[in-house]
Structures are given as C-alpha cells and as structure tokens.
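Apologies for my clumsy wording, but can you show me some protein sequence, whichever is easiest, together with the matching structure tokens, please?
=====
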Amino acid sequence: MKFEGKTCGVCNKGTLKAFKDEIAEGVYVDGYKDEYGHVAYSKEVMAMVEKIYRNTAEERSLVRVGSSVAVPIPASIVRLLALKPKEKVYVTTQDNRIIIRPSPF
C-alpha cells in the first residue's frame, strides 16, 4: 500500500511523503513521513522491522513513573556501559529514534 499524499494517521493533519528510512545499519526500507515527523510503514515493512528488532534488541515495556514513563535498561547493557543507579543520562530524539547517552563525567 502506498501512503504518498495521504493524511497522517497519528495527527490527522500532516501529508505523508515517501523517504528511505535506515531501520538498522545498512538496512533501508520505504517509509512515509509527514511535516510533523510522524512516520508510517506498510504492514510488510513493519513485519520486517519487528523481525529485525527481535533479533537484534531486547524488548522492554514502558512503565509509569509519576507522570512520566520509563524503560528498564537490560542488565547486559548496564554492565557493558558500567552504569550505576541514579547516574545521569541524556535523552534526545533523532530521526524518530530515542537516544539515551550516559553522562561523560
């Protein structure tokens, strides 16, 4: 299914335009993005993305913490990066991704 020119299903305002999205290093798929940054994929692409993610990442569920949500970081990543409880991290977004960086100090 082609989404080019259709209205965004998230905000019902934006118009979707085709682009190539890198879902994993060196793996590009057809995606559709509106001017607000919302992204859509076909069902076939979503199935491929989920398969890649299941094979390359650990799945976690969001948990409520006060009025925010949090993601538990897997112990293997905590050990790999030598993270400690209450250590500061920096959270940003880039190309529809969440980036978490440990404090350099």
